[in-house]
Amino acid sequence: MTDSETKSLVLKAAGRPVAWYVTHHRLPARLSPRPYLHPVTTLAGTAVTELTPADHLHHLGVGVAVPDVEGHNFWGGRTYVRDQGPTELDDHGTQRHVAFQLSDPDGFVEELRWVAAGTDLLRERRTVAAVELTDTAWALDFTFSLTNVTDAPLSIGSPATNGRPGAAYGGYFWRARKEASVPDVFTADRAGEEAVHGRTADWLALAGADWTLVFAGATEDTRRDPWFVRAAEYPGVGSSLASAERLPVPPGETVVRRVVTVVADGRLGRGEATALVRKAVTQ
Question: DSSP state, 210?
Fold first, then answer.
């Protein structure tokens, strides 16, 4: 690819490159093209993201993906249709990078357009920062603000709100690296995919062979969103914008969410995860 087709910005923590943010890329419309972070690594250099994996080609590292914005697919892949199931539709939207308002080695502020069928639906301001926590852990602080720029009400939905139980994905999403063993998943008081999926929790951890990701909602609104969790089928964690019902976004109104993710070398226990999350969210 040429520079005009792929552009990336490198984020550093503790002076080390830990994440590559891609704003311009060559992806088919079916994947709902959008900016993403990949690869993301621990401070020791272990990769903890995947891009277009064979099991879900539309999973693009770390970013914001929503399967239903007023009937338009900004998630990628098939669209879940009530009483019909996953269906191939020509309904995909695109998130388009507009400009960086700020760009430093440890973070950036970006403006994006969410476009579908030739129309701007949402305008996004995305603020991302890489924060050093310890010699073996750093945090990705990710805030997105979605503003309805149309003259009509919009709503955000998910396969769950469209009739598929347990599939409330859509929002901040992290596709982790698939390994030979299924990663452990736990919160402060629960363990296992079935026990934590679809529930709210101050933080949720995904632990692989020699790495741990700890996700935390950093605002009251974000903490009210249930966690979408996959471990056995593939490793992925997201914060659900539309779980039990659609999320309305009136004209000119803005939806804001902030998720802080601790990226640590090694396998953390509950006590270590709690301490790092507290440090990450308060910095």
Answer: S
Distance CA 210, CA 227 (A): 23
Tell me the chain's radius of gyration from C-alpha atoms. Answer: 18
Q: What does the pLDDT look like over 161-197, one tens digit per residue?
A: 999 999 999 999 999 999 999 999 999 999 999 999 9
Tens digits of residue pLDDT in 42-73: 999 999 999 999 999 999 999 999 999 999 99
C-alpha distance from residue 49 to each of 101, 169, 213, 251 (Å): 26, 18, 11, 35
Q: Please give the Cα distance from 160 to 95 (Å, whole number).
A: 23
pTM: 0.96
Q: How many other β-carbons are positioned within 10 Å of the β-carbon of residue 55?
A: 10
Q: What is the arithmetic mean of pLDDT over 153-163?
A: 97
* Contacts of range 48-53, beta carbons closer than 8 Å, 24 or more positions apart: 48/176, 48/177, 48/208, 48/211, 48/213, 48/263, 49/174, 49/175, 49/176, 49/177, 50/175, 50/176, 50/177, 50/178, 51/175, 53/175, 53/178, 53/234
Residues 6+ apart with CB under 8 A from 184: 191, 205, 206, 207, 231, 267
β-pairing, 7-13 vs 16-24, is antiparallel
* DSSP code string of 164-207: -TT----EEEEEPPP-SSPPEEE-SS-BSHHHHTT---SEEEEE
Q: Is the confidence at residue 1, as pLDDT, over 50?
A: no
